[in-house]
Every structure is written in C-alpha cells, then in structure tokens.
Design brief:
about 140 residues, single chain, elongated
C-alpha cells in the first residue's frame, strides 16, 4: 500500500543522521483566528494575562519582565512539562509515519505575551531533541 511504499522509500534513501521532521512552533492570538495549518493547537488563556498589568502591557513575551511574570505561576512550568511529555510521545510516531512537517500552534488572546513566551520556551526544549525547529510569532506586531 501507499504507506508501506513511503516507508520503504524513506528508509532506503535517508542518511543515518537525517531527521525528516521539521517542526514549526507558531504563537498566535485567538482574536485573529487559529492558524489553519496547525497540526496541534494549545490554548494558554488559562494563564494570567500580562496585558492587564499596566507596567507589562507594552512589552511582549520576548521581554524579560513578561517572561518572569508568566514563569512566576506554577501552572506555567506544569503546562510546559506536560506539553514536552506529550510531544516526546507523539514525535517518534509522526516520524515513523513519514510526516515531514509538524506545526504546533500556541494561542492566547492577542498573541503578544503568553503565547510568544511559551512558543519560545517550547522551541528551546524541542531544539535539544530535533534538528529543525523554527518559531513564528504570527500576531506579535498586530
């Protein structure tokens, strides 16, 4: 069948150090819609929103002040651990099935604070295990 043929061709022609799965981590704001190309979508609106802290509103999830604020809540670390565990389980299965691309979307309300910070953290964690990981902050400048 087609799946067996793909597996045969992939195994036959890949090099020993080749990892075929390219991972994209996309931060987004639900206000602007869910990315249509996402394979996995995670909603982080359960975390406290820095937008409602006047001293943090103008910053993004790339700024140290915002990162510290988001990390200060225990559910942030727990969420990251659980997502990393889920991905550690899923990624080998996706690779075995011959999947070439995986898009992981992380959304908050506006796409500026929580999703940005968590997308960056997830990229760091995945980069330790996967060769090709990129991050895109779709709504950061909106």
């Amino acid at each position: 069948n087609v799946h067996e043929l793909r597996h045969f061709v992939t195994e036959r022609f890949k090099s020993a150090d080749h990892r075929p799965l390219m991972i994209s981590v996309v931060s987004f704001g639900y206000r602007f819609g869910v990315p249509t190309d996402a394979d996995l979508v995670f909603d982080v609106r359960f975390l406290p929103n820095p937008h409602f802290v006047p001293s943090l509103r103008k910053f993004s999830g790339k700024d140290a002040k915002v990162k510290r604020f988001i990390r200060s809540f225990p559910q942030t670390g727990e969420f990251l651990r659980r997502i990393e565990s889920l991905l550690a389980y899923l990624i080998p299965h996706y690779i075995r099935e011959g999947k070439s691309y995986l898009t992981i979307a992380i959304g908050c309300t506006g796409g500026k604070h929580r999703s940005v910070m968590l997308a960056e953290e997830l990229r760091k964690a995945l980069a330790k295990k996967a060769r090709s990981v990129k991050v895109v902050h779709r709504d950061l400048d909106k």
